[in-house]
Amino acid sequence: MGGAPVRPRRLMRALPPRLRVRRGFTLIELLIVVAIVGVLATAATLRFASATDHRRLEAAAERVLRDFDHARRAAVAQSAGVRITFDPPHARYRIEGVSGLEQRAGLYVARLGADPYTVEIVSADFGGGPVLEYSGFGIPSGNGTVVLRRNGRTVTVRVDDLTGIAEIIP
Questions:
Q1: Is the dihedral of CA 110, 114, 118, 121 positive or negative?
Q2: Residues paired with 148 in a beta bridge
Q3: Closest Cα partner for 75 from 92, 96, 105?
Q4: Which ranges of the chain have pLDDT less than 50?
Q5: Which of 25, 33, 55, 147 could bridge to 122 as Cys pair (CB 3.0-4.6 Å)?
Q6: Which residues contact 150 (CB under 8 A, 6 or more apart)?
Q7: Which domains does the chain have, with CATH numbers?
Q8: Which residues neighbour 131 within 8 Å (Cβ) at sequence distance 6 or greater?
Q9: What one-character-per-residue DSSP string does the chain give?
Q10: Residues 120, 91: contact at Cβ < 8 Å?
């Protein structure tokens, strides 16, 4: 057990180059990894934002669809007319003759321009105007469409004048 101690650096130099072990990463290697992670994070963020926009637009269209159905059923249940009036500049609509969860009796207001939807109503046309009325038999005053938009994407909700049933047209 005598003799001079073996120093690690001398031992490393004595090994062939393929057997030498490095202790860390170079600055260039670290910068490359950071750049790759940055590119992947940016791509994931953009994809997530696009999916969120799409989901908000779909949810708003589903809300309009369900409210058309709710108004039609309420008109039949009450045997009285129920009117839906759209206000595109303010991205909202109201249903008269039906109460909402948070509104006073007889008036239901849906604000699509606010959270969680934040969409705009491009147009609402039911035979020349933004008003649709269901009779006490659930028959609409005419057919028509509501066009919703968010960040360049649009979706249309159409009401059939014979059945009064609404459908979403992507």
A1: positive
A2: 121, 155
A3: 96
A4: none
A5: 147
A6: 53, 56, 57, 60, 118, 119, 120
A7: 30-169 (3.55.40.10)
A8: 83, 84, 85, 86, 141
A9: --SPPPPHHHHHHHS-GGG----S--HHHHHHHHHHHHHHHHHHHHHHHHHHHHHHHHHHHHHHHHHHHHHHHHHHHHTS-EEEEEEGGGTEEEEET---SSS-TTEEEEETTSTTT--EEEEEESSSSSEEEE-TTS-BSS-EEEEEEETTEEEEEEE-TTT--EEEE-
A10: yes
What are φ and ψ of residue 159, in 5° steps? -110, 130
Q: Which residues contact 2 (CB under 8 A, 6 or more apart)?
A: none
Question: CA triplet 124, 129, 130: central angle to 5 degrees?
Answer: 40
Q: Which two tokens stand for residue 27?
A: 């600055």
Rg of the Cα atoms in the chain: 32
Stated pTM of the model = 0.72
Cβ-proximal residues to 98 (8 Å cutoff; 6+ apart), any chain: 70, 71, 74, 82, 106, 107, 108
Half-sphere exposure of 14 (CA within 13 A, CB side): 6
**Six-digit token pair at 18?**
């393929």
